[in-house]
Specification:
Layout lengths: L2 H6 L1 E4 L3 E6 L31 E2 L8 E7 L2 H12 L3 E10 L6 E5 L2 E5 L5 E5 L7 E11 L5 E9 L6 H8 L22 E8 L8 E4 L4 H9 L8
Parallel strand pairs: 4-11
Antiparallel strand pairs: 1-2, 2-4, 3-4, 5-10, 5-11, 6-9, 7-8, 9-10, 11-12
Length: 234
């Protein structure tokens, strides 16, 4: 990623934090295999401070949208307490292959990480797993190019488990488009259709909440339009 592109993806900036629109397909930090990652480019967002900002939370590699960064150690401490204490309102948009039976509801399914013999892993619903809660509502439905039913779903995760939205929606019979790991059987390959659409949190006691909204990425536009999304509202 070039410095100019990262600067164009800046959604919010103040003395304590930044919010950027993370592109899909870019890991936030280095994995065991190395390769490009967001942390390698954060020096471009110092804006005069002696050190680059750091991640206040995580997004999966294939998820795009709002990502919060702390600009220094004190800021990261305050943001960490907000995220850990449920003080951050997170809104996600997903497009799924299949439509949930109920138009809205609360998914309360504990999640546990399971590793297979080859070293791969996935999250599964398990009564002995960690508490995981997602509120959702269907914003629209439509037909995909292969004739499958699609749903445009807004999610508000109340916990922050790995792959939480992906597993929870799959449990409703509506896996995310582009997510064969959790059940999308649609022919062909496509990016994951999951967007961290917005975040909001009360960082300053006497000021309005800090908030930002990410634009819809190009790879999700066609499917969202099929479900009734109007580009003008983005």
């Amino acid at each position: 990623m070039r410095e100019a592109e990262l600067l164009q993806r800046l959604l919010y900036r103040d003395g304590l934090c930044l919010i950027i629109d993370k592109p899909a397909g870019l890991p936030v930090h280095a994995g065991p295999g190395g390769g490009d990652n967001l942390e390698k480019h954060l020096d471009a967002l110092r804006f005069g401070l002696p050190h680059p900002p750091a991640l206040a939370h995580r997004l999966d590699r294939d998820t795009s949208g709002c990502l919060v960064l702390g600009r220094h150690r004190k800021a990261l401490s305050r943001l960490g307490k907000l995220f850990q204490g449920g003080g951050v309102e997170k809104t996600y948009w997903a497009v799924t292959s299949g439509v949930p039976a109920e138009a809205e509801g609360v998914i309360d399914r504990p999640l546990k990480k399971v590793t297979n013999r080859t070293g791969g892993w996935k999250m599964v619903i398990d009564p002995e797993g960690q508490a995981s809660v997602t509120e959702y509502r269907v914003l629209g439905t439509g037909d995909g190019p292969s004739g499958q039913r699609l749903a445009w779903i807004e999610c508000h995760p109340k916990t922050g488990r790995t792959h939480q939205i992906r597993v929870h929606l799959a449990a409703l019979g509506a896996p995310l488009l582009g997510d064969p790991q959790y059940g999308d059987k649609t022919p062909g390959e496509r990016p994951l259709h999951l967007l961290s659409r917005a975040v909001s949190f009360k960082l300053y006691p006497k000021k309005p909440p800090v908030s930002a909204e990410a634009p819809v990425p190009p790879h999700m536009r066609a499917a969202l339009k099929a479900c009734g999304w109007k580009e003008s509202v983005s």
